[in-house]
């Protein structure tokens, strides 16, 4: 009995029993509603992006992507993500470790603060950096004295990107690490492992799928961020434009095909992210490993 | 290696986990820390291992102060209640872990590691599982692997935290016998924590009974069982019948009987008697030293039959255990009045009974 039912998921079991099965009409209605919404609001825009991008043919599409300003925007986007993601990786792992494995004063505050970038409008996030580092800001004059430009320059864009992508990895890891507890780490320490060995050999392998998932989401957001970056960028073509900003400029100049061509790159990134995410979820789910947890025969 | 624990105090906020605990564990002995949950036994074990720090006091392993030594330098083996196997490593790698993390000059070569791991897997009789993942093992197998892993680093002392707590009764009994055998082969100073009195009495060379952060009694299983130091120990170790009464003329008067007692220290006043169910004989003839009681139920299965009775005077529930053969000879019937003759009465001042969590009747078979 147990063997037969354990291969079914909860929903399959729910469906297979007439007592818990819903009426056919309710089922059809729910499905139609869900699928209809999905097609109208999610699939259709995606199709439109690619259709518009390719309307004037592959040649125009390609030309829009290799144009110097577009290339510069792509390069800047990659650079911002390449800096923001590793930094948030280090931060996310240390914050999650601290919150899940230690007791300390201010833990609740730290947990709440990690969510701040989620609750604050990205425009505000950008404005904060303008206020702090801008020409009229707190450190503006000081920085100018050393000839360091942050606002309307690449450092500002990187800072804004780091800010908005701050919570992704930590948020992903905290519940995972809390659920796993610290017994395995304790076992490693008792067996003579150093803190570093414990991290590399025990903690990291246990969280790797969650971590990868967090990195993927963090990267997607880092490349796609618009609001915060827009405020600190200054929109200088070929200098401080990222891909989302470049799309907006092209669109405002009525270069629809070019705008959609660059947008299609971002859409491809989104699709790639989703694909990787599903692979990770499939790999990380316990049902994918056969023969889990046969208990000693119970009497 | 001997272990000495000196004046250990530990608090968690307002809760006192350990209150001035001093204990000696002799070399090569298997000691049980026994007590109800929350009595501080696991905390004490974790302090010895270094996984927890005491607020004050000292831990000496082989005469050497270890309080400030990091966990990884203490050379203790620790077995967790929920095994704590590394879930992403095979059984082989789990056991090899302690060898692989050694500093380079102490670390054996690949062949040496392989030999040592297979030796240990043979010792726990699970060599055929070397390539499995922990999730593919049963609870009993996991705990044996956890033990092999702990032994890999040749610990001076072995600490086991409720090692059989997560297993079901049958496996628990098997592993108990197996652990005793293993201890007799290896003779590592070992301490295990348990709340199961039967496990402690059966397995340990010495039993330490703890309650509310203090040590109630320490000694060989037989001594602790037969000569409990106080009401708590008596109540915790095995089943007890409890009678309230008064002391007069060197006898204990309760439920219409006048009983001679092993330990009358008071000349008079109230006292509480603890009687083991197997130390009550059943007689048909009235006797001044027999408690009149009515039979309620007879449970006649297994080697020992159990008879539930209530006293005639105060309707106090009592339980008697006697061999199946004796029961057949007596031919008792429910509803019948009999007289219970205690063979050993342990008296405790009535104030002591207050620290008992609850009257422990028929705690274990």
Walk me through this protein's architecture.
The complex is a heterodimer of chains A (299) and B (365). Chain A is an all-alpha fold and 299 residues long. Helix content of chain A is 76%, strand content 0%. The radius of gyration of chain A is 24 Å and the shape is globular. Mean pLDDT of chain A is 83; it is low at 1-6 and 287-299. Chain B is an alpha+beta fold and 365 residues long. Chain B has nine helices and 20 strands. Chain B has helices at 41-49, 91-100, 110-123, 139-151, 169-186, 197-203, 221-226, 231-236, 324-330, and strands at residues 3-12, 15-25, 30-34, 56-61, 64-65, 76-79, 157-161, 189-194, 206-211, 214-219, 241-248, 251-254, 257-259, 269-275, 280-283, 291-299, 304-311, 317-323, 337-342, 346-349. In chain B, the strands form four sheets. Chain B has a six-stranded mixed β-sheet, with helices on both faces. In chain B, α2 crosses α3, α2 packs parallel to α4 (139-151) and α3 crosses α4 (139-151). Residues 354-365 of chain B have low confidence and may be disordered. The chains are: A mainly alpha (299), B alpha+beta (365).
Q: State the helical fraction of chain A.
A: over 70%
Biggest sheet statistics of chain A: none
**Element order of chain B: H for helix, E for strand:** EEEHEEEHHHEHEHEEHHEEEEEEEEHEE
- Our Rg estimate of chain B from Cα atoms comes to 25 Å
**If helices are DSSP runs of H or I spanning 4 or more residues, what is the number of helices of chain A?**
16
Which oligomerization state do the chains in this entry correspond to?
Answer: heterodimer
Report on the biggest sheet of chain B. Answer: 6 strands, mixed
Q: Major sheet of chain B: order of its strands?
A: 6-7-8-3-9-10
What is the averaged pLDDT score of chain A?
83
Beta strands of chain A, count: 0
* Overall body shape of chain B: elongated
Report the uncertain regions of chain A.
Answer: 1-6, 287-299
Helix percent band of chain B: 10-25%
Distance between the termini of chain B: 36 Å
β-strand percent of chain A reads: under 5%
Order of helices and strands of chain A: HHHHHHHHHHHHHHHH
Largest interface: A-B, 26 and 41 residues
Structure annotation, total helices of chain B: 9
Give the tally of β-strands of chain B: 20
What best-fitting shape of chain A do the alpha-carbon axes yield? globular
